[in-house]
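Hi team,

As requested, here is the filled-out complex form for the 87F run. I kept the field names the same as last time so the parser does not choke. Let me know if anything looks off before we queue the next batch.

— J.
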Amino acid sequence: MFISKGVLEREKDHIEGFAPEVAWVTKSGDSDLSEPIAIRPTSETVMYPSFAKWIRSHRDLPLRLNQWCNVVRWEFSHPTPFIRTREFPWQEGHTAWDSLENASVEVRQILDLYKGVYEQLLAIPVVQGRKTEKEKFAGGHYTTSVEAFVPTVGRGCQGATSHCLGQNFAKMFGIEFDDEKHTKQLAWQNSWGLTTRTIGLMVMVHGDDKGLVLPPRVASVQVVIVPTGVTNKTTEEQKKELMATAQKLAQTLAIDGEIRTKLDDRLNYSPGWRYNYWELKGVPLRIELGPKELSGTTYAVCRRDTGAKGTISKDDVIKDTRNLLETIQNDMLAKATSTAKMRLVVVNEWSQFVPTLNNKCALYSPWCQSMACEDEVKKVSGEESKAAAGMTTEDAKAPSMGAKSLCIPFEQPGDASKYKCIAPSCKKQASVYVLWGRSY
Ligand code: 87F
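And here is what came back:
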């Protein structure tokens, strides 16, 4: 987690814009260190001197490393739990390849894995695309990302990135290999990362006024069993039978069904109190077990995502529970996807840009690919929003915040060249649609 000044500053473009965010250790006890040591903000400069030693021949390629670790970035903007914190855990992958083509294939493979993490596990739809030159990782060749959207505040949020670094770092760190013809070549590199932002996005996209709503595939407890119906008229015998049935059900689901199950047998708390407790924690499915269930052929269930009540059959309890969890998972993605569809809108005219933005939307708008226009969109949308700030938004920061480019989506919503660039003073024809939005 410590990086010497020498290696950290070797690739100048890489560190340039980020320098203010690097935290330095300057003392041990009362004595000054002879040279300050940086606290890892990312590991390129720690790993690549070793890459240079390990890679000799084309046979050593690809070299692919992955690690989970914590990194520190001395953020100045508003901290938000999981979304923007000065220390955060992440996964970072670093690879070296023999050609740009092979490196580029991996960039997309990893981006597809990240899309899968969001959509298949977290039930959050994302837009895949390439970052503009302004927003890309300066030390790299090009940057791709998955962008998520938080409807309650109308802000985009970068979910993960997959960079092609080109040969920039290879040049600076001397990462070379002998190709088949025994000629020295610089390696082509990628780096990619996913952070605990995933958790923050999951909380914000699915959570409601009762608390967390967890997608079943990532919930540490998928089903909670709550025994109910115990009153002061209940005999010890009946209580025993209820608990034995509950325990047996928990075992069936957990051991035979491999469903992550919890039995809440705290009979000193009322059923309602226990329902609230597990709702707050986001447990996807609750099974209620009372006197009625003991004698009947079904169990009463309640879904966390919709609040809908239903029954599952005792005979097929594993199958029914699994199916219901699968349904919840799919419904959560479908709901988040339809919300996002309504809020990610195509806007071809500047007059509609800020009003749409203030309607808590992200926008697909045409762009001529000049950085001056990208800057102008951000600046003018910020100014016009401020002027329109009479229109209330729940987000205290939002009215003054301009829209930045989130990505150039791989899947374009139409033919941008039919339109003029969205920047108000630009007269040029557009060439691509950019996804613009306020962002975290
Ligand atoms: C902050 C301080 C110093 C981002 C920083 O995206 C350096 C940096 O290099 C820095 N903030 N970055 C870019 C990180 C690039 C790349 N590294 C591997 C990733 C994914 C994982």
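Two things worth flagging: The domain at 223-328 is CATH 3.40.50.800 (Rossmann fold). Residues 14-15, 18, 21-22, 41-42, 44, 73, 92, 137, 161, 163, 191-193 surround 87F (CB under 6 Å).

Thanks,
J.
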